[in-house]
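Side project, low priority. Logging it here so it doesn't get lost.
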Amino acid sequence: MARQTRSQRWAVLAAALLLALTGCARVAPPLLSQDVQRVGEEMRRLERMPDGIVREQIRKWRSEAYSLMEGAKRSAQNSQALGRLSFLMGYAEERLGNFDRSLRAYQNARRTGYSLLAAFRQGEICRLEKNDDKAAEKAYQVVSTAMGPSDGWVRVDPSSPDSIEGEKSVLASDARGELRLRPLKLVAAIRLDRIHRHKWAYNMLDSLVRFTGGNPSYSHALALILLALLVRIATTPLTNISLRSMKKMQELQPHIKELQKRYGDDKQALAREQWNLMRRYKVNPAGGCLPLLIQMPVLIYLYSAIRFYAYRFTEARFLWIRSLAQPDMPLLVLYGVSMFLSQKFTTIPSADPQQQQTQRMMGLLMPVMLVSFLWTLPSAFILYWFSFNVFFTAHQWYMLRRTEEGPTAADAALAQPKPDRNSPPGPPRRPKKKKR
């Protein structure tokens, strides 16, 4: 038991270290509005240049970039200047139709303040020229999940309808295109929504929204709650298996403590006797974790379904939540409280005082850690997990109340008379006659 407690303490320390590193991670400084306007003017100037002058301009920018990279110091100002030159070279190559060179130049600008502009242009090239939806999805995902608002230049067909969703995007090599200043996160979310519409998980969630009425005021939230209920019902057999195995393991703890006192420091004999004890009472040590691991692919798939449907949550509302696509701190606090109450009501108390202290510490730390990690996620994710946790807690509390009645499985097994090996064997059984 001391080894298990020590491993749990190491897990808590590792989680705290990960939280500290996440908060101290370096991010590229965002672009100022004047920088965005300045780079837009240079992009328009490139569109009006003849091809020969554009090539000369690329060579000039490349020499400037080499001189900056050869400098002894790599300050933040030099990094921004390199990002600007890399982005403009990428747009110039896109203007000439050299899309492979353009993608490489945009990639060099991804570590600077021009990262979102460059990632969006990469997504446009991969979607419109390369027909590579997977690469385009990765690039758009970088823009849509960025922190804070971000405006950028989107090249569209001016003959398309004058609305963000109806605009038809074109590349820099298309002469009919026109640059327009747009919120990049919103446009990237629209591009992702068009890519995800062909996926089964997107259509499954969209069907639930239509089933609940298709009203943005409540249908999207009811669809998430209904999805959590369906998943809870589907995974009930696995949860029952896990809960029974955990209950049996908890019932064997007094007998395991007796073995520890009996064998002391003889670890091999202790491990052998523990294995014999579990085999005698038909308890699988991995029975409590294996069903939960089987559920992980289902939860990951549902997480992907909600992520695919993220743009449709933009206008969705529920109770005090104005948009399910934005984080909501009151809902996140409710989720943390539900996690605390779930662990308090459904945790099987241990007979070991040290183990009880560890359980109380984990019951307090886990909700705080989850709230710290999840505060940037959209409220649609939190609403689904909150509903799933409520259904899970109610089911587990009901199962624990049922198992509290009557003798435990281990005590019932100990009450059975053990066969005496020295007693004479009984009369031999007659062989069964074979049927003709």
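Brief comment: Strands lie at 151-156, 178-183.
Revisit when time allows.
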